[in-house]
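To the team - magnesium ion complex, inputs and output below.
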Amino acid sequence: MPGIESMTAVSCEDLVKVFRSVTGETHALRGIGLELVPGALTVVAGPSGSGKSSLLTLLGARDRPSAGRLTVLGSDVGVASTRELRRLRRRQIGFVPQRASNAVFPHLRATDQLRQVASWRGASRRHLAEALDAVGLTDRGGHRPDALSGGEQQRLAVAIALVGTPALVVADEPTAELDHANADRVMDALLAVAAAGSTVVISSHDDRVTHRADRLLRLRHGVVSSETSGRRTAAAVIDATGRVQLPQEMLGLFPDRRVVVEADGDHVRLRRPEVEL
Ligand code: ADP
Ligand code: MG
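Output:
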């Protein structure tokens, strides 16, 4: 049995990120502690400016902490050499930046981009086709990014991040430019890679995304303000007058017993009135 230590893909403690500029300092992250384990999808939610991108950039080993400790797939990101981090990123981390266009090579056709990244990760041609299919871009493989829409570029960036099932997948608002069907498809693909054993962390304030998380962290002003775990489902019946009785273990989600009921296509969601989406 592997110990808890070896099960943890990413861990951080008192993680701080301060940006300095001529106009002063911005404390984007003010002491974050968390552990991410393989096989689960974590969503980081929070209002604009709360520090989501700063956190994901660090978790993807694309920046160094200002203070605190950050370990990503065994590398201490604060002290590892630039070369070690580059190797880690190429081989083991799929990353979708908030601006998807930054993730794609402008001069390469979609399939060639995937082939390049797949070769870094030792993935096969089959994986390449699967990645394009998973995001619904099979018939766009021959196009260069400038012939793709913003949403298609975002889906291509997701395919590049997922190809070959890297140990860690980090995606910053990966459904921001997508319609409902494609957002669902991208979430299916991210959940599938988590089910295959990757550690997946994404940011979003999109309810289509947050309700499918295994774990939901909310950031506020650079600190974790709340954490919810588990995509929980339970069977219940609707009585003749339309009443549904929630299972006891879910009542805790509604401490003041007020609820917003939202019909969304073929399903209904219940949420606390003050929960931000
Ligand atoms: P979010 O992704 O939740 O919108 P960010 O992590 O992008 O939040 O930003 C958190 C704070 O850090 C904001 O106040 C933002 O202006 C600031 N910030 C982010 N990146 C930089 C940077 N490169 N230089 C200066 N300030 C930055
Ligand atoms: Mg952001």
